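Practice problem: predict the structure.
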Amino acid sequence: MKIISKQQDYYDFAGQVSDVVYVRKEAQTYIWIDKSLLAKIQARETHSTYNNGLNMLFFSIWGSPYFLWEIGKSSEPKSYCFSDEELTSFYSCRKFKKKYFQKNLSLPTREEFIKMHKKLKTPIFVYNFNKHYETTKDNYQIAQICVDTNVILKNYGFAAVLPAHDLFQQIEFFISNDLAEPKPMIEISDKNRIAGHGFDEKSFRKPKSK
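Answer:
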C-alpha cells in the first residue's frame, strides 16, 4: 500500500508498497446514522465529564471500536488511556469510578461500523463526545453526527495497543476490498467469443454436400 499524507504515522512503513493507495487527509465531516446505533456508542459515558478535564473519544478502525479517555482541560497537555483500570492510576477516588464507568455494554456490530466506514470512505474515524454535532430527522430515528476522519493515530498512543503491521494490513484490506467499486459485468457477443478463441464464423460451417 502507498500512503500519501502530509504527516507521518507509526504504521506508514510497516508493509510493502503496492497498487493500493491510501490518501490520508484529515478532515471533519458529518454522517447520518441510526439513532439506536448512536445511543449504543454514547452509552459508554454516563455523564458529561469535560469540566473535570476528562473526555471520551470513540475510534473505529476498519470496524473495530476503541474507547479512549482523554485527560486534560483545554489549556493543558493531553494524556490518553485505553482502559478504565489505567484511568484509575490518575483518579483513585472510588466515587469517581462508580459515577463514570459502565460495564457490559451492547456495542454495535462490526457490520454496522463497516457501513459507516463505507459512507465516510475512510478506514479511520473518531467521534468526540464533547465536540459532536447532532441533528435528527424521521421522527428522531436518524441522527447526524460530526466525526474526524483519517486522524494520526500515533498522537493518541495507538502504537501501544495496535501493532503497526496489523494496522497497515487492515487499512490496505479495507481500501482494496470494502471500499473498492464492484467491476461491471461485460457482456461478450458470440462473435467476439469465437474470435477470442482463434476461430472465425467459417470455422463452424459444414461443408456443402456434393
